[in-house]
Amino acid sequence: MSRAIDPSFVRRTNLIQSGCLPDEGRIYRPQRKKIYLCIMAKLKNIHPGEVLMEEFLLPLEITAYRLSKEISIPQTRLSEILKGRRRITADTALRLSLYFGNSPKFWLGLQDDFDIEEEQSHKGKQLQSIKKYSRKAA
Questions:
Q1: Fewest C-beta in 10 Å: which of 43, 91, 99, 114?
Q2: CATH 1.10.10.10 fits 48-119, yes or no
Q3: 20 CB contacts (<8 Å, ≥6 apart)?
């Protein structure tokens, strides 16, 4: 019986073995003095609602309805979070962390990471035009 191999795992393994790091479009010169051009596909930005569904609700066999009732939030709020249409607020992060036994900063960190990635993808060129502050000698 053979197992299917995830193609993304093979690509990532090949890049690591070749000495390339996962930065898009950069050229690296490993010790072997060969030039590698690393081109990686941009991964989909993952909303915290997807993490909640895939890493918590499905494995623990908890329904969205049950979770909404147990942490005392409206079912519509949780449904919108799971669909990726609503942010995880500090209030929701506190409730999720108490229920699942992790930190509220875990949930807010997921949300912050998602928001930063979204802004970078939407305003990439505009942000690249910003020059870094440098103190000029008087």
A1: 43
A2: no
A3: 28, 36, 38
| AA identity, residue 69 | K
Residue 37 C-alpha from the chain's centroid? 25
Lowest mean pLDDT among 5-14, 38-47, 62-71: 5-14
**Residue holding tokens 């802004």?**
119
Q: Where are the domains of the chain?
A: 11-37, 48-119
What digits encode the pLDDT tens for the residues 43-89?
Answer: 889 999 999 999 999 999 999 999 999 999 999 999 999 999 999 99
Q: What is the DSSP string of 87-134?
A: PPPHHHHHHHHHHHTS-HHHHHHHHHHHHHHHHHHHSHHHHHTPPPP-
Q: What are phi and psi of 133, to 5 degrees?
A: -65, 135
Name the amino acid, one letter, at 30.
P
Closest CA to 115 of 84, 70, 78: 84
Least confident of 29-38, 46-55, 95-104, 118-127: 29-38
- Rounded CA-CA distance 56/111 in Å is 16
